[in-house]
Amino acid sequence: MISFYPGPSRVHDEIPKYVKDAFTAGIMSINHRSDDFVSMSEKTIKLLKQKLNIPRNYTVFFTSSATECWEIIAQSIVTDKSYHLYNGSFGQKWFDYTKRIHPFAEPLPFDVNEKLDPKKLIFDLKEGLICVTQNETSNGTQVSNAIIRAIKKNNPSYLLAIDATSSMAGIDLDFKSADIWLASVQKCFGLPAGLGLMVCSPQAIERVKTINEKNHYNSLMFMTEMMDKWQTPFTPNVLGIYLLMRVLENMDAIKATHDLIEERYNKWIIFLKSRKNIRHFVNEEAVQSYTVIPVTADEQTVATIKKSAKKEGILLGEGYGNYKPVTFRIANFPALKEKEIKTLMKFLEKY
Ligand SMILES: *Cc1c(COP(=O)(O)O)cnc(C)c1O
């Protein structure tokens, strides 16, 4: 089965070998306070910064999932109000979880085909948090680096938190333009699920220390103290970190990956434009995601495609929410192979 599901998604071919290596090297039972763990953790974070172009003075944290990162941010960074810009299910969930902890969380929904206008996003409090989903996996839209940069520039005293779960390691994100970036590894990293990543600017760490929230095992205060020693407050997914390290060692620089992903996205756009019965779900090209391609058609066509794809050994991503019956999604993640994409295009040619 070739998985085009946008997460959990196709893993890199080398994963079984790395798992075996981990077992042989005793990684699966190493103590998370040992020197061996510390040097592996340090190496993984250095590689991550190097390969993804993350500023050196940013702090990287290991968590269990992107969802956990949402909660950590709500617990340790929000004191009163946060603004949530979203146009899809993941952004809305982030808002929902935050609101349960801080009732003044404010939703700022926008349209799937709407390009955010930073001039209209100037907030009036002295400080606070702005949350943006860079790549909305549920509907295949994205917010550009330029818009993220402008939002931060217009609101310098705010922390800007970015959910990049389905784009980190797939596209070239401008990490220095925001304060908190979160992701999990089962999307563009091509790894099995169970590990989340959070990347924080010095301004974010400063805010964490000012707020000094210490009510949870994963309060960012504790996490920061432990990460000074390349460790985590809890026993982390050591195998996941090891696999991440191995994948990073072989990873191209993010600029090269970005170019490949954008080129493949362009091919999908051209391909979909010449189909009769299916088309890209998002009309506004300026907001189309590079890493998740949502496709729409009438209900019957979508049902037929999903069913016959399975028979041909192709797994497509389900549509989301209300659009489930009339959409499906195609991951455009780096672990996918050229010939697998060709196979899917050939299958979809008749529609
Ligand atoms: C997949 C996804 C999440 C949730 O990730 P988990 O690892 O399941 O917590 C959050 N945000 C976005 C944009 C996603 O694509």
UniProtKB/TrEMBL annotation:
Coiled-coil ranges from the UniProt annotation: none
Domain of life: Bacteria
Cofactor: pyridoxal 5'-phosphate
Record domain Aminotransferase class V: where: 8-325
GO molecular function: transaminase activity
Sorted UniProt keywords: Aminotransferase, Pyridoxal phosphate, Transferase
Pfam family, one: Aminotran_5
PANTHER family listed in its UniProt record: ALANINE--GLYOXYLATE AMINOTRANSFERASE, AMINOTRANSFERASE CLASS V
Family indicated by similarity: Belongs to the class-V pyridoxal-phosphate-dependent aminotransferase family.
Protein name: Aminotransferase class V-fold PLP-dependent enzyme
